[in-house]
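User: Sequence in, structure out. Go.
Assistant: Echoing your sequence, followed by the structure tokens.
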Amino acid sequence: MSTGLLFAALLSTGAADAKGATLRPWPAGQPTPALQLTGLDGQPWDVAGLRGKVVVVNFWASWCGPCVDELPVLKGLAGRDGVAVVGVNYKEPLDTIERFTQDHPLGYPVLRDRTGDAFKRWTPGVMPTTILVDRTGRARWRTVGEIPPDDTKLRAAIDALLAEPQHRTHNQN
């Protein structure tokens, strides 16, 4: 049995972690939306430019307590080889985001979702939501709720995606 199938079988129960986060497969038949936003420096960002890495896309806001509580987990993931973490801030003013990131250095890029459209396309409307995108650019897993510090499921999913052959292709429709 492949690593991915074994991992999928282990997660089939969809049980929530102690803090309520649940790792589930990306919804079947739902294409991976584009994610083209602006960074805090005003420069355009396209997450498709990170192909070749497993991308952890985290939707957050400074007023969201669970979002703040899971920051150490995301910072730890940002330091892994082959993994890129991207934070997507939900509809906050630039000065609010800048103040927050000065008080809480993240160590990964933060993009601005000024209108909330990306949040609507990528999440079920709950914050925080974290999506794992494989090295081909396809969304594969989604965690809704705070990722607890002792999480093993998200890390196992990342390990499984890193173990997949890089030349693998997916139909994104």
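User: And one key feature?
Assistant: The chain has one domain: 3-163.
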